[in-house]
Amino acid sequence: MLTGETILVTGCTGFIAKHIVVELVRRGATVRGTLRDPSRAIQIHRILRNEGLPIEGFSSVTTDLREDAGWADAVRGCRFVMHTASPFPAYQPRSKFALVPAARGGTVRVLEGAENAGVERVVLTSSIASIYYGHDESPRRVFGEGDWSRVESDSISPYAVSKTEAERAAWNVLEGSATQLVAINPSLVFGPLLDARPGTSASLIRLMMGGRLPAFPRMGFGVVDVRDVAQAHVAALTVPDAAGRRFVLNGGNLTLSDIVAILTETYPDLARRLPRREVPDGLIRFAARLSSRVRMLAAELGPAKQLDAGPARSVLGLSFRSPEEAVRSLADSLFREGLVRR
After folding, report:
1. Which InterPro entries does this entry report, sorted A to Z (predicted)?
2. CA distance readout (Å), 298 to 54, 88, 89, 169, 221
3. 23: which of 178, 271, 284, 296 is 20 to 30 A away, CA to CA?
4. 309 part of a folded domain
């Protein structure tokens, strides 16, 4: 159903976006990717060649989420838009709202451009960060598409604030519009890299495997494979019942201790590098009194939040890979790309 369609993918060199581009080209679509630096188009061409796909399936346009110029041209002639671009810093800024202008403003520019161009449907890459942060409910609570993070909470991170505000802005822009919106809300995204640019989400595993994380907090979180995230985005373009929905993506929950165990079993030669100790909860909570950044970490201590990914299965037809597979495939690709050495 996508053969011959021109589809705009914003932020096309991101971890998730690169997998989306590959999946779209594999299905016969022509991808127009937005780039701030046009020279980076060669990265996508290289990935497509490595996947045995035609580089003619991809073209680029130079735009900036912080600027109004260029978006009308970027969306012109596109039936669908994938908006994946959003700031995801390696380190959280001190100000809770520091990332909001770029995330929210960029989203508004893209969606207004899409609406003005008569785009049929926009698929927004949001995050579980816009759903479950800042809540103090029982750990038995299950979070789903009807939940929103509380930006007024003292324990919410700047990244979670930016994702929440950007997604809310997207729904506001297209409320009552003929242009449909679907939001994809993945948990922590692991899975294979397509090149040597790992992005922020792979940094945790890379630090562990490189021997640069001596200890870890007692913390759990949901994990989803990037290949499943890409398939969810592509399905969301055309499944009629997806319009107006938010889809939580989660293949299962892991603790940091679980991840260490997976890496130790898979790569016993790395055992000496991998962290062996948990940081006591009390130490983190004491430090949280002095640091707002540690306060955000302290709020996530304990078991993973419970997430309802049922609609992604029933509506989008997803069958999730296990979180263990996502960890192993990411680790394998870190070796393959030379980002971790034995």
Report:
1. Epimerase_deHydtase (IPR001509), NAD(P)-bd_dom_sf (IPR036291), NAD(P)_dehydrat-like (IPR050425)
2. 47, 20, 20, 29, 14
3. 178
4. yes
Q: 50 with 44: CB under 8 angstroms? A: no
Task: Please indicate whether residue 160 or residue 338 has the higher confidence score (pLDDT).
Answer: 338
CA distances, 104 to each of 98, 190, 246, 258, 333 (Å):
11, 25, 18, 35, 32
Instruction: Specify the pLDDT at position 289.
Output: 55
Residue 342 resides in a domain: no
Q: Taking phi first (over 0 means left), then psi (-120 to 50 degrees means alpha), and beta for anything else, what does residue 91 get?
A: beta
Report, as an integer, the average pLDDT of 153-169: 89
Identity of the residue numbered 301: L
Catalytic residue, candidates 18, 96, 163, 305: 163
Q: Is residue 1 part of a domain?
A: no
| Residue with the two structure tokens 């969301």 | 236
Query: What is the token pair recorded at 146?
Result: 């009807």
User: Is position 163 annotated as part of the catalytic site?
Assistant: yes
Q: Quick one: pLDDT at residue 130?
A: 96
Name the domain count of the chain. Answer: 1
**Residue 66, domain extent:** 6-336
* 14-23, 63-72, 288-297, range with greatest mean pLDDT: 14-23
pLDDT one-digit tens code per residue, 195-219: 999 878 888 899 899 998 888 888 7
Considering the entire predicted model, what is its pTM? 0.93
Looking up residue 32, the CATH number of its domain turns out to be 3.40.50.720
- The secondary structure of residue 269, as a DSSP letter, is G
308 located within any domain: yes
Percentage above 90 pLDDT, the chain:
70
User: In 3D, which of 112, 98, 143 has the Cα closest to residue 249?
Assistant: 143
Could you tell me the two tokens for 302?
A: 């304990």
d(CA 116, CA 109): 11
**CB burial class (10 A; 0-12, 13-18, 19+) of residue 170?**
buried
